[in-house]
Amino acid sequence: MRSDLVYVLNEGSLLEYTEEIALIFSSAFPEPQRAEWVESLTKEAAAVDETQEADQATAKACALVSKLIKSAPGIVEGKDREIEGLYNLLFAMLQHYFAPTDAEYKELLMHLVKVVSDTSSPAAGDRSVAKYRVLANAFNLLPVQSPERATVFNALFSLASLNGDMDFLCYALDSLPTWLAQWEVLPEQKNEYLGIYAAALQDSECEPDHVNKAYQYLLLHLRYISNETALSQETRRASAEKNVADMLRLPKLFEMEEVMNVPVTTELDGTPIFALLKIFVGGTRVDLNQWAQSADGKASIERFHLDLQDLERKMRLLDLATLCARSVSSEVSYQGIAEVLGVDIAEVESWVIDVIRAGLVSGKLSQVKQSFRVYRSTHRTFEKPQWEALEERLVQWQKSIQTLITTIKTTQSQTRANSALEALDASTQQEPQNSETAAAAASS
Fold first, then answer.
1. For residues 135 and 386, what is the distance between their CA atoms, to the nearest angstrom?
2. For the chain, which ranges sit under pLDDT 70?
């Protein structure tokens, strides 16, 4: 989606444009009415072309273009390129005969957007590519700061989301934060839009990449709320709580320390949802169960539509990652894992496989030893205890490397000494042989 598209009418007459548009749109009328409707519009167009007075001609042309646009029935029969060309012509005529500041300009533009993006129709998914291209062209038609851009993009976003075609917007989603900053819309509207985008990206039918992008928009939303002083305290609090709850719901989001540092998140301190966030950042499964059994926890689960089983599963994976983080380059017994997770030993291997798939841990299972050797593990937080553990591990590595270097040097010295002794022995054995040879030669 570009932002520098300009529509230019070619050297046709208004009559020619009207005939072309009317003939295509007439297919939406009952057959007995088609000819009459087309004829009435072409007569109006001919009258405009024959009008000598410039102001009168302009007024009649605007009235005719308005009538043509308002008669647009949406996506009609025809090839996608023809449909796109038809609406490009309508957008060009709108741009040519109306100024963006005209009251009717916005009304006509929004009508075109509405009939193309109608998501309430059972056939909303039909001809989706043509609809996307038409709406994208409408978006590009508008100035960068135009508030109508937000309306057009939201229509396109809703349609693509409904049809499960978020791939069409993959590049637009990368540019969307910049566009949001440019659009001249109210802070409350931007707050609403960010919520809509993040919610759509969390849909279970979205691709994994889009679900991951949901976190980016939820975090962007939190930061926007933090910096936007025009929002009411009630709006800030409600939006922040919902965003945090949505983040906790994301199945592949495990590192949430960054969320704790957003100013608006800290304002939630003392609320049940903030307590839950703290548990996921530094608590355990036991803490989660205690929270869930409290009155505030039960109310929050119901209020934010949280799934306790999903939360418990995520918490178990985090507990396992924390256990492994304390045992990097060593082994963790199946029994120790079962105790931390609160599961039977028979389930340990499946949990270890799940935590590896989640990207939190890497290592090797040993059924013979009933243990898991940890190669790497993710920390939920990295504070003083983690720094101290890292320092201790580095010191151990340093000692190990020093011991290895000393061993290598000792081995090299012994090797050189042994080589020298072998050379000396070989020389000593050769001297008697040389003396015997010389004596034999003298006697002969």
1. 51
2. 1-12, 119-125, 204-211, 381-393, 397, 424, 427-444
Distance CA 355, CA 358 (A): 5
Rounded Cα–Cα distance for residues 360 and 377 (Å): 6
Contact in structure between 318 and 356 (CB atoms under 8 Å):
no
Cβ distance 9 to 96 under 8 Å? Answer: yes
pLDDT at 435: 55
- Give pLDDT, residue 71: 87
In this prediction, residue 3 carries a pLDDT of: 47
Report the alpha-carbon distance of residue 168 to residue 135 in Å, rounded: 12
Q: Which amino acid is at 434?
A: N
Task: Check residue 173 and give its pLDDT.
Answer: 86
CATH of 317-377, one of 3.40.640.10, 1.10.10.10, 3.10.270.10, 3.40.1160.10: 1.10.10.10
Question: 333: how many CB neighbours lie within 10 A of its CB?
Answer: 15
Do strands 331-333 and 361-366 pair parallel, antiparallel, or not at all (unpaired)?
unpaired
Q: Is 106 exposed, middle or buried (CB count within 10 Å of its CB: 0-12, 13-18, 19+)? A: middle
In contact, 341 and 321? CB cutoff 8 Å: no
